[in-house]
Amino acid sequence: MLGALAFLLGVSVGSFVNVVADRLPGGRSLVRPRSFCESCNRTLTSLDLVPIVSYLWLRGRCRHCGARIPLRSPLVELFTGALFTLTYLRFGYSAETVVVCAALSVLLIVTLIDLEHGLILNVIVFPTMAALVVVAPFWSELGFARPLLGSLGMPASLFNSLIAGAGAFAIFLAIALISPEGMGAGDVKFAGVLGLMLGFPGVLFALWLAVVTGGLVAVVFLLLRKRGRKDAIPFGPFLALGAAVVLLVGADLSTGYQEFAARLPGFWA
Question: Same domain, yes or no, for 191 and 242?
């Protein structure tokens, strides 16, 4: 029953994620006006806005003018519901679930906006940084942080998060200065956010996963001639993917690392 509630909450949050991704890039308010059809400008009623159900009932079209509703809307709602359900199954009815669900929602918003507009907005980055600084001192009480940080004998503390955030920011800033065309300022600030969010060594796992997956996708695009060597590929989604993996299975990654290191004589674990 609680898993079903987590899914329903997730699809509802996913509906809001869609609103944020649609409105923030244009500097529009998230509150006013009420949701409306972009084609006919008619205000949508509550029956038009039931997550997933309304899209299926209306067969993917506006009830007033028949314009197509972007498929992205129900897909994001469904995906967010799945993420919330996985989070609940992973952490149960706990503080970890609340924190991870909130973090995953931010990661999804960043992903959508970067994919569609090539932007990682300050209006998302800076408030997230502030929230993470407030939450970080309490992370020693959260199960998802303790296995990662405890594996290297480090406390899950504000100091750890600040060091991880500053380190990730510095690494990406250096890359951006060396190769401005390959790394944007938004990616640099977002890397700092991930450091605050994941601490050390969690951020290292996330950045490594981002680089590997981003590199593989870039190679595939080149082979398929979907992108040229000088064409930019948004890196924010890969950073978000790496962070999401660490948030959901970071403790398992840490345990696997320790087991692997233990098999190598003289290897520092």
Answer: yes
Q: Are residues 23 and 143 in the same domain?
A: no
Q: 131 and 78 share a domain?
A: no
Residue 102 lies in a domain: no
In a domain, 261, yes or no: yes
Domain range spanning residue 269? 120-269
Residue 185 falls inside a structural domain: yes
Mean pLDDT of 202-225: 87
DSSP 232-265: ----HHHHHHHHHHHHHHHHHHHHHHHHHHHTST
**Whose CA is closest to 82, among 108, 61, 58, 59?**
108
Number of domains in the chain: 2
pLDDT per residue as tens digits for the range 90-110: 888 888 888 899 999 999 999
User: What tokens does 121 get?
Assistant: 């907005």
Q: What is the pTM of this model?
A: 0.85
Query: Mean of the pLDDT values across residues 232-247?
Result: 90
Question: Span 161-179, mean pLDDT?
Answer: 89
Cβ-defined contacts of 128-134 (< 8 Å, 24+)? 128/193, 128/197, 129/165, 129/192, 129/193, 129/196, 132/161, 132/165, 132/193, 132/196, 132/197, 133/158, 133/161, 133/162, 133/196
The reply to whether 109 falls in a domain is: no
Q: Is 226 helix (H, G, I), strand (E, B) or coil?
A: coil
Closest CA to 20 of 85, 95, 91, 116: 116
Percent of the chain with pLDDT over 90: 39
Nearest to 268 by CA among 143, 146, 153, 164: 153
CA distance 150 to 157: 11
